[in-house]
Write a sequence for this structure.
């Protein structure tokens, strides 16, 4: 049995903060790097990545695995990801429960899937292959969505089945739950209630924008109060979970993002214990 | 939904999201195309309007990736001109790699062959900006340095391997696009760009990417050295191009020292 360590409150590693990170370090407890941004031969990004890795726990978070895609898995991508993971030894490796392209055309978006039994059958061998190449369990994130397919089960029912049948774990993006709940008209707390908590490795928080007809997962604003409220609810149910703030559009100075991570910490003060505490058991890959 | 049906749904959605008509065309036409997909709409947003959200994000994401890598080109073309270029380019060269970092790699060639009524130096400006992207994250390599050179015994010099770093890019331009780029990034107009032969080398040293003009002989030597050669071979190559009887060893040593000081040579 493996256990997910509570890393505390982290922030996403973004190019605009490289200078500040090299000069002053960070107040955040840990960092998350977008895998594809560092699957390169050399230069400043890798230098910064290795520098921050020396001081802080780091996880890798991919955006192009396309685990729900219908093209064959990109084996060279998997090998490059494994090489990067061997280089920086992340605490875990995550990506998204989505598809990102078709027929070698990458849309670079996190596109939704139909929640069906057939999809579980489609995902199981793909997840097994990824875990085999990476030599570790894969952590998959729920994406925000703006369209939904006619399906056989709800997203939360699907996630519970996914971890049971495919042997992966979850990155619960609370902002995505809030955005999708608004866009599709479901109860976000019901979603949280159904999440198999022992499989949640990490939580994401971020800002979104209101476009009138829908919410957009824009990552360009502070975390909305409603999302913090849902986060409190999730922590009350799940216990302490490593939590990370994402900020990708109109990225403010590093101290502003760090302050947002502290805001998340204050939101669950008392409920979320200190970094280093451990939480529920999960089956090892 | 069986995998074969999922594949068909993903095919159709990909085509819709990448098609500019999804955003620009009439909603009624889009609704006809979307009707074949098992997407749920509701009173707030129809299925077609939901597809449009993804199409809008796709267009912005592709444009922004190209703006990130080609800021001077964008300044030269203006917002509208660059958006139009990005739209046409992405239709011809949709992303086929996991990272958006690679999206713009065909842009200099695309501009050279589809320049319409635009000045030809724009393609060279794009070529320079793409060289900067490539140098930025090229392979890290151990560098040949002066102490290593000083430690060489006289008999070791001829066999010394002289090989440029992988970040090096050599550009032969017909316009001074290096200075044009600087003006554009300083938010000044490009002005009248003269026809002028400019040879540029782009490379990375100590994590910083540099652009420098080089003279014809140095450019020729770097091109010849692309895959590496021994110091003796370099001297022979220089001798073939020198006046009869001229000792080229000092020239070779001078070139070597300047390249070493610029972090341009790999240590073996």
């Amino acid at each position: 049995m493996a256990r997910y360590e509570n890393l505390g409150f982290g922030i996403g590693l973004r190019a605009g903060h490289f200078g500040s990170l090299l000069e002053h370090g960070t107040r955040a407890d840990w960092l998350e790097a977008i895998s594809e941004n560092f699957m390169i031969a050399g230069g400043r990004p890798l230098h910064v990545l290795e520098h921050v890795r020396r001081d802080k726990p780091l996880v890798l978070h991919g955006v192009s695995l396309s685990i729900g895609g219908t093209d064959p898995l990109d084996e060279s991508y998997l090998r490059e990801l494994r090489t990067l993971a061997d280089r920086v030894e992340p605490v875990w490796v995550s990506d998204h429960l989505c598809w990102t392209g078709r027929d070698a055309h990458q849309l670079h978006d996190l596109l939704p899937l139909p929640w069906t039994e057939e999809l579980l059958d489609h995902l199981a061998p793909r997840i097994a292959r990824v875990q085999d190449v990476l030599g570790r369990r894969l952590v998959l994130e729920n994406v925000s969505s703006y369209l939904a397919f006619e399906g056989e089960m709800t997203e939360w029912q699907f996630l519970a089945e996914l971890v049971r049948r495919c042997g992966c774990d979850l990155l619960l993006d609370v902002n995505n739950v809030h955005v999708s709940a608004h866009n599709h008209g479901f109860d976000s707390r019901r979603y949280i209630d159904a999440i198999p908590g022992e499989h949640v490795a990490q939580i994401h928080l971020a800002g979104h924008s209101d476009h009138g007809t829908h919410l957009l997962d824009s990552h360009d604003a502070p975390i909305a109060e409603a999302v913090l409220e849902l986060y409190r609810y999730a922590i009350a149910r799940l216990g302490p979970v490593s939590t990370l703030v994402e900020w990708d559009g109109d990225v403010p100075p590093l101290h502003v993002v760090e302050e947002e991570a502290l805001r998340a910490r204050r939101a669950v003060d008392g409920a979320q214990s200190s970094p280093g505490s451990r939480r529920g058991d999960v089956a090892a890959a | 939904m069986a995998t074969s049906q999922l594949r068909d749904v993903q095919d159709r959605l990909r085509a819709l999201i990448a098609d500019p008509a999804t955003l620009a065309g009439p909603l009624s036409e889009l609704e006809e195309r979307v009707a074949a997909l098992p997407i749920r709409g509701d009173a707030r947003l129809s299925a077609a309007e939901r597809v449009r959200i993804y199409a809008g994000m796709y267009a912005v994401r592709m444009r922004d990736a190209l703006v990130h890598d080609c800021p001077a080109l964008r300044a030269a073309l203006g917002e509208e001109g660059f958006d139009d270029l990005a739209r046409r380019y992405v239709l011809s060269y949709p992303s086929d790699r996991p990272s958006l970092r690679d999206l713009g790699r065909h842009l200099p060639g695309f501009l050279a062959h589809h320049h319409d009524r635009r000045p030809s130096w724009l393609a060279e400006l794009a070529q320079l900006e793409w060289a900067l992207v490539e140098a930025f994250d090229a392979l890290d390599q151990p560098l040949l340095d002066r102490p290593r050179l000083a430690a060489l015994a006289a008999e070791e010099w001829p066999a010394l391997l002289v090989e440029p770093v992988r970040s090096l890019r050599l550009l032969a331009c017909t316009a001074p696009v290096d200075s044009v780029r600087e003006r554009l990034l300083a938010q000044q107009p490009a002005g009248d760009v003269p026809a002028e032969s400019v040879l540029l080398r782009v490379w990375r040293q100590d994590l910083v990417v540099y652009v420098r003009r080089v003279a014809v002989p140095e450019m020729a030597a770097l091109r010849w050295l692309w895959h590496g050669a021994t110091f003796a071979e370099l001297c022979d190559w220089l001798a073939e191009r020198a006046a009869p009887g001229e000792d080229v060893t000092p020239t070779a040593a001078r070139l070597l020292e300047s390249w070493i000081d610029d972090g341009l040579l790999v240590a073996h």
